[in-house]
Amino acid sequence: MLKIGILVLLAAISISHSEDITFNFNLDTDDILVSQWMNEDVVSIPGGVAPFESGNPSLQGIPYTFLLPQGYSITDVTVDVHSQETLHGTYDITPVNYLAFSRPFTSADRSSVYLSETPFPSSPVEQTDSGNRTGFRLGSFTLVPFSYSPLSGELSVITSATVTVECSPDPDVMDIALTPRQINTAAVGLEGIVDNPSRIAEYAPVIRAATDGDPVWVAIGAASFETILQPLVNHRNTYTGDSEYVTVEWIEANYSGYDTQEKIRNYLKDQFYNHSLVYALMVGDNGITARISYLKSGSDMLENVVDHYYMDLDGTWDYDGDHLYCEANDGLNYYTDLYVGRFSSNSISHLTVMVDKTLFYATTPPAGSWQKTAMLMGAGLWPPTYWGSIVCEAIDNFIPGDWSVEKLYETSAGHPNNQIAIINAGCSYVSVQGHGWYGGISWYYAPPDMIAISNYDELTNIDRLSIFHSMACMSGELTRSGCIAERLMFSDDGGAVAVMFNSSYGWGTPPSMGPSEWLEVYFTEQLLTNQVYEIGVAQAFAKDQLQAMTGVPLTGWVIQENNLLGDPALIFVSGQTGIEGGQVEIPLQPALGTPYPNPFSGNCSISYDMPGSGIASITVYDLTGRAVRSIYSGSLPVGTGNVVFDGNDSGGNPLPPGCYAVVLNGPTGTASTMMVVAR
User: Fold this and answer.
1) What CATH number does the domain located at 591-677 have?
2) What value does the mean pLDDT of the chain take?
């Protein structure tokens, strides 16, 4: 194995007056890894992905994602190469090979590129993309520093360059204004995705006031389920914000659309763009609340439930108007707007179990080491050359050092089979990488079942429920009655409080990780490293990271098929706030202190306490409710601080004597205080 090495530095990012983004790209020879796969060369770089179709050389690039000014899109990316180095020797680069995990290994046919003298790729920039993410504008591309001449075997690499991302106003981009809660929930996750996080406050959408009574969280389902869901609605009213159960029957009577699913989506769009909505829980099995995807990849059609239809509110998801939704030509953006989960059952008893499990997990789970215990299960995917332990080890890089990690890995000699006992002992996060079908996830060798219909009913962890995530095929196939994802949710003795499994084929690219595997890694990074503890928010940002891998095939398929079963606002147990030795969700509200001095003439100081970091605004209102001065607008860290107010209105004129309200809008709520101006 030969180490050549690459070090990619993103340094001195700058934005010119024309809104272009410029950064320096530098390489050395420390971190490129050249290895062998089936007698062919594999060239890898840390964090690298191959943004090419099957059959093309699997050269890796680095994905970049930038916040753009409101209303802008990327129009071009130029790479001004300062130096380039030809690597020693000749190379036979293995082709990109997309395979479904449930299918036998077959080698990809080499494309015509391998018969050409023309260096590949033709440009170091592989595709650009721009999209909306909860009112933020994102632009992404993948930079491939390699240039490969297949017939000669010569491989060169850019060692120094200046990259310029050209941005221009885009007349097709819709201008929107959102509430502080909507913006801040997005801003927290964007910090871990974009390469210019310092621009979050500057490039945030316009803030508009939330209206009292507008729901932040809704459950949507048949009227017959409302009583069953009411305890969860009550809980969310206390711990999340204004919450409602909205019946499908009411939506059908009050919103237009081709079918019920489109009417539901139009309701969600109205509540998001014009009101205060952040979270939506769909209630019901495959049926009137579930959109079926007609996305194709070759001869495969997804043809299963895709709740991402309700998460990305851009466009109609039916651009060509044929009512075959979610197709590749339907103008899909994929970046998330809402955080959506599902209680996937039409059974009163099953829905009752899921509500009870969610409430117990959110209010009275026992303390203990189980809260920081993860289990990573890796089966043989295509033995003897490619194993699920590869993705498990990538996941482990994002698990905090103070956690306990149980690793159950299959090898040619067999596999452990004590996964049920480990979960029953207490395991807050379970990542299962294996072969799948609607009835379970399997090892390669016997005994086959990892988590399946045959053994899930042995789970007795009802007081220490797990979060499950998997890249396995079909294990979340919601069009089949009682798939393993659903059974883990409505098992009344244990199992899961949230499950994220695939409704169709999971995709890999051996010998490197493919899009389904990257989604596994990104979810762990969001949840455990970035500490985005709301399950639906963590899943959404993992999907956003996958969408930002510009040029990588099948990312859209993987984003569509990976549904969340569970409440999207549920807070992961190790991220909950403890009270008296217990672990419960508690309202995290900001606070404003009384101005000092008060009354005041001239300046006063106003203290604040922020329980969560993010974008915040502090505004002065007169007694008619008119905003007379913005004191602060931007990002605030967790903790206490103060702002100084000079007593002037937005025009610089002294405020008339009298009483005024000071209002702080933050990522977790609103606080207010009164002040008196004396002259």
Assistant:
1) 2.60.40.4070
2) 92
